[in-house]
Design a protein that fits this description.
Length: 319
C-alpha cells in the first residue's frame, strides 16, 4: 500500500501568513490524494477545528510534548535516543550511504523516517533500498532531499522498489521531493489514483506563491503555467490528432487548458487553428503572408508573440 505524507506546512515560514490562506492550503493538500498532512505545533491554534486528526501528523520538538496534544494519527520528532510513545515517527538525518548500517541499532523502533540521502541515485540505490527495508521494515518513511535534484526520482523509485511510505512537499518546498510530481508520476507508472481530480493543484499553487513569495516558473512540471503551451507546427498538428503522443496526461487533470502559441517555429496548422480560435476569416493564400510576418516579429522580439499581437497582425494582413 502506498502512503504519502505531505510536509509543505512544516517547511514554509507562516509567521506572517493569513489564517484563511493557511486553512485553505491545509484543506486543499488533503484533496491531492495524500494520506497525511504534517503540520507543526505552531499551526494548531491557526487551523483550529479544521484539523482532521485522523489524517494529520503533528510535528513536535520532543516526545514529551505528545501528551499535550492527544488524538493525532501520528506524531513526528527528531530521534533523541530516548524511548518514544507508540505512534511516534522517529526522524533520522542520513547524508551518507555509509551511515545506513548505523540504523541497525534502531530496528526496534515502531516508525522511522529517513531524511536526506540526496546523492543516492549516484550509487547502487536499489541495493540501499533493500538494506533499509531489511533493517527497518515496511514502517520506514523515506524523505529524500533535493540538493542534487534527485528527490522526486528517488521518491518514485522507492515506491517502485516496494517501499510503501514517502514524504514530499508541494513545489518541492523545503528542499524535498515535489508532491505534485510524485503524485503524477505514480499516477502514470503505477496507476495510483487515490484522487482522480488534481485540479486543486491550481489553487494550491496560488496559495503557495502567496505564502512563500516564490513565483513558480512557467515550465515547472505539472504546475507550471506554460507546460501546455505549444508552438511548433508538427507538435500542434500531432497534439490535436492525439494528445497522448506528446502529453503524459490531459491538461484538464490538473485544472489547465492546452494553449497554442505562435512564434518562429509555428507552421500553417498552428496559424489556422489560431485564426479559428479568434474567429478571424483569412483567405488561405494570405496565411503564408501572415506566417512570415509572425516569424519575423518573433525573431526580432526573441519570444513568441502574444495573442493581441497575433490579432493585430492578422487584421493588417486581412485589409
Amino acid at each position: 500500500m502506498i502512503r504519502i505524507t505531505d510536509a509543505t506546512l512544516s517547511t514554509v515560514n507562516h509567521k506572517y501568513a493569513q489564517k484563511d490562506t493557511l486553512t485553505d492550503m491545509y484543506r486543499l493538500l488533503l484533496l491531492t490524494g495524500v494520506n497525511y498532512v504534517e503540520i507543526p505545533m505552531s499551526l494548531l491554534d491557526i487551523l483550529g477545528d479544521s484539523v482532521d486528526l485522523s489524517r494529520t501528523v503533528l510535528r513536535v520538538e520532543h516526545a514529551a510534548q505528545i501528551r499535550n496534544y492527544p488524538g493525532f494519527i501520528r506524531y513526528i520528532c527528531r530521534h533523541s535516543g530516548f524511548e518514544v510513545p507508540s505512534g511516534t515517527i522517529s526522524e533520522f538525518q542520513i547524508n551518507d550511504i555509509r551511515e545506513v548500517n548505523l540504523l541497525r541499532r534502531f530496528s526496534e523502533l515502531e516508525n522511522v523516517r529517513i531524511v536526506g540521502l540526496d546523492d543516492l541515485l549516484q550509487h547502487d540505490y536499489l541495493n540501499i533500498f533493500e538494506r533499509l527495508k531489511l533493517l527497518l521494515g515496511n514502517q520506514l518513511e523515506f524523505c529524500p532531499q533535493n540538493n542534487y535534484f534527485f528527490a522526486t526520482a528517488l521518491a518514485v523509485e522507492w515506491i517502485l522498489s516496494g517501499g510503501e511510505n514517502i514524504v514530499a512537499s508541494f513545489g518541492g518546498g523545503g528542499g524535498l521531493a515535489a508532491l505534485e510530481e510524485v503524485v503524477m508520476a505514480l499516477r502514470i507508472v503505477r496507476r495510483h489514483k487515490p484522487n482522480l481530480d488534481l485540479s486543486v493543484l491550481r489553487a494550491l499553487k496560488k496559495h503557495y506563491e502567496e505564502l512563500t513569495g516564490i513565483s513558480i516558473r512557467g515550465n515547472k512540471p505539472v504546475i507550471g503555467d506554460k507546460i501546455f503551451d505549444v508552438e511548433s507546427g508538427i507538435h500542434v498538428d500531432g497534439i490535436f490528432k492525439n494528445g497522448a503522443n506528446y502529453e503524459p496526461f490531459e491538461p484538464s487533470v490538473v485544472g489547465m487548458e492546452r494553449k497554442i502559441v505562435v512564434g518562429k517555429h509555428s507552421g500553417r496548422t498552428t496559424i489556422e487553428i489560431k485564426l479559428k480560435e479568434y474567429g478571424i476569416d483569412l483567405p488561405k493564400e494570405r496565411i503564408t503572408d501572415l506566417l512570415g510576418k509572425i516569424q519575423e516579429m518573433s525573431i526580432a522580439l526573441g519570444r513568441s508573440i502574444t495573442d493581441q499581437e497575433f490579432i493585430k497582425l492578422a487584421d493588417n494582413i486581412a485589409k
